[in-house]
Design goal:
Layout: H1 3-15, H2 21-32, H3 36-43, H4 51-72, H5 78-103, H6 108-136, H7 140-166
Helix pairs in contact: 3-5, 4-5, 4-7, 5-6, 6-7
Amino acid sequence: MSVTSVTDQLVERLGHARVLDPIASRLGRQIERVPIATRRALEGRWMGVPLHPVLTDVVIGAWTSAWVLDLVGGRRGRRAAQLLVGIGTVTALPTIAAGFADWSRLDRDAQRVGLTHATINAAATVVYARSWAARRRGRHGVGVGWGMTGAVIATVGGHLGGVLVFRFGARATRAARPLDEPIPTELALKST
């Protein structure tokens, strides 16, 4: 059995895992309580493209760059790797929020996979936070270990994000306003 078919089977099971429905329902109700202007901002309507994928590039870019520095940067790369782990960890928070704004618009099967995607990425964020803390305390080797673990976890979470887009058609572009739609007054940037 190929890795692809095993992955497909796991995703299929996730998409039909009704055990996730109570969590998805509660989370959906919480998201509905967020003011509409905030949700629209998290969807990226103010910039005409979905915000979540833009933010994931920052997180993934920072963490991947730290991973490369950990592998080949030697002692000279330690400080930069620590900074990049911190940047990735801090920017993961608004990325998660933007992801949930998009998630709330998905059908139930995609929401189940999305919930797993979010949980895995939240776990990666916690692991990277531990990496950053260890590095700050001067325990570089421990920080690198946490960072490598975080990279594996984030890769699995990122794969599920790709599955949401390419298998479930859960494109975040559904959440963004069309380019010809005017920016809502409450979100328009004021010129100075």
